[in-house]
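Postdoc handover notes: sequence design on the structure in folder B. Input tokens:
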């Protein structure tokens, strides 16, 4: 066992280490160290949502990013003349939504609903902004990664239209 691993075993409880390992695999945290991810994790809240529970409704002002640790979430949108609910995507463990809320507080473009019991980590824009003030290097990496994700999603949508 290396000295670094030995120190981690002493200073990190198993639950925190598992969270850091989980979050390091998520695209928007790419390139961050264990320490950096640990800083982000301490700014997050954990919440359990029951099947059928709305996590965030369409048109509500977005104020948080949601990361699914366990469960399945459906993102839907009201469309057409009858404003019927249309499923846009299904998300599972390791997926995230609401990332644009960390950049600007605008109305959400869809409704997120738990399809099963979901354990979700939430980072509110206010907490994220405070973390960025104290750790600008982490904030720059996360915002850059969010831009890459948004760009890829936009390219995917444009590809479907052509």
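Designed sequence:
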């Amino acid at each position: 066992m290396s000295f670094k691993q030995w120190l981690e075993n002493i200073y990190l409880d198993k639950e925190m280490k598992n969270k850091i390992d989980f979050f390091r695999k998520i695209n928007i945290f790419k390139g961050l160290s264990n320490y950096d991810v640990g800083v982000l994790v301490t700014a997050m809240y954990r919440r359990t949502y029951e099947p059928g529970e709305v996590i965030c409704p369409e048109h509500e002002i977005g104020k948080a990013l949601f990361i699914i640790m366990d469960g399945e979430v459906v993102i839907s949108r009201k469309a057409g003349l009858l404003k019927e609910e249309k499923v846009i995507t299904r998300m599972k463990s390791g997926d995230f939504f609401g990332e644009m809320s960390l950049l600007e507080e605008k109305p959400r473009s869809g409704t997120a609903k738990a399809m099963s019991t979901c354990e979700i980590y939430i980072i509110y824009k206010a907490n994220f902004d405070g973390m960025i003030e104290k750790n600008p290097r982490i904030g720059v990496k996360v915002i850059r990664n969010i831009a890459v994700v948004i760009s890829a999603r936009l390219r995917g949508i444009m590809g479907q239209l052509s």
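Context for whoever picks this up: The radius of gyration is 17 Å. Don't rerun without checking with the PI first.
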